[in-house]
Design goal:
By secondary structure, the chain is of the alpha+beta class. It folds into two domains: about 15-185, Homing endonucleases (Endonuclease I-creI); about 195-300, Sandwich (Immunoglobulin-like). The protein contains six helices and 17 strands. The protein has helices spanning about 15-20, 45-60, 85, 110-120, 140-150, 180-185, and strands at about 25, 40, 65-70, 75-80, 90, 95-100, 125, 130-135, 155-160, 170-175, 195-200, 210-215, 225, 240-245, 270, 275-280, 295-300. It has a four-stranded antiparallel β-sheet. A hairpin with a 5-residue loop joins strand 7 (about 125) and strand 8 (about 130-135). Helix 4 (about 110-120) crosses helix 5 (about 140-150). It is elongated, with a radius of gyration of 23 Å. The chain starts with 12 loop residues before the first helix and ends in a 15-residue tail after the last strand. The model is unreliable at about 1-10 (pLDDT under 50).
């Protein structure tokens, strides 16, 4: 498999198949008992996985060809045009319950992308640095992950299956992939708090570079953070961005450096559950970027604001 280290903005179809629902098998849901239309469903506590799935979909196919509705908090994605693409990965019995056809995942790349899809929706990285994926009542995805891990010659560290007599049936696999693929898993972990940045030019002759700073709260609860050392201060009070030229040289910080006492409650902001907040700041006011054309930018979180590092943009 190619060593694709960064989180993809465009995912192979096999990865989306790995993200589809396999609880008691894949269900063949048709419209008026004719053509099946269901692509996948996501539970109400899987909003981040649902969003990731639909974002991937929009890079592969026109999102207008998909219907998205919410029932009792759960998300349902359907498409008369594209449901067949997903259904072809399954073999259906008389009860219209689908089991994954592993023969269609003939290459290592397809196997890895399927596993990665299940990881994005159901997995985590353990404290020991292994990959853990947990299923409930999976009729074929759990077995496929086991088989693919073995075929990829990755080390299985733990297997758990409480059996069909137990409801729900808990199924778990813990494994260690090769080093190159491990980085792919690390870069595709769904995070509760995400910081994203982007830039655009404005002003006369587009002389000013404006940085848009966004915090995404994927938690089902409110999240508070200290706005110090972030663009929410509205002016640069500290060097919290990393700007690096193509030759590796760091761009000089020219903003203020302010010493403070420990923050109190008035120095915190709150993001509502499953919400997004954004602000903007002029990059030129904090960094010596005049006459510099090619460089990367990243926000660096701190123990003060307790925010993660952002994406890297060029």
């Amino acid at each position: 498999m190619e060593n694709n280290k960064k989180m993809d903005t465009k995912a192979p179809l096999e990865r989306l198949v790995g993200m589809t629902d396999d609880y008691n098998g894949r269900h063949y849901i048709a419209e008026n008992n004719t053509k099946p239309v269901l692509v996948s469903s996501f539970y109400c506590n899987e909003k981040q996985a649902f969003t990731t799935f639909t974002n991937y979909l929009s890079t592969l196919y026109p999102i207008t060809d998909f219907g998205i509705e919410t029932k009792k908090g759960n998300y349902y994605i359907s498409s008369k045009k594209y449901a067949t693409l997903f259904n072809k990965f399954y073999t259906y019995n008389e009860d219209k319950i689908g089991l994954l056809n592993q023969a269609l995942f003939e290459t290592d790349d397809k196997k890895v992308n399927f596993i990665l899809g299940t990881f994005i929706r159901y997995g985590k990285i353990t404290e020991k640095g292994a990959i853990e994926i947990s299923f409930s009542n999976s009729l074929s995805h759990f077995k496929a992950v086991q088989d693919f891990v073995k075929e990829l010659k990755w080390q299985i560290m733990e297997l758990e299956d409480t059996g069909e007599k137990n409801f729900p049936q808990i199924q778990k696999i813990v494994f260690m992939p090769d080093n190159a693929t491990m980085e792919l898993f690390e870069n595709n972990v769904l995070k509760d708090i995400i910081v994203q940045i982007k830039t655009h030019k404005e002003g006369i002759f587009n002389k000013k570079t404006v940085l848009t700073f966004t915090i995404i709260n994927n938690k089902n609860e409110d999240y508070s953070f200290c706005y110090w050392q972030t663009p929410f201060e509205k002016e640069f009070m500290a060097n919290y961005l990393r700007l690096v030229l193509k030759n590796g040289e760091k761009i000089k910080y020219i903003g203020k450096m302010v010493k403070r006492s420990p923050p109190d409650k008035d120095d915190f902001m709150t993001i509502k559950a499953n919400s997004v907040i954004s602000t903007e700041i002029i990059l030129d006011n904090g960094y010596d970027i005049q006459n510099k054309k090619e460089f990367s930018i990243q926000f660096i979180g701190s123990s003060i604001n307790k925010l993660p590092n952002s994406n890297i943009i060029n």
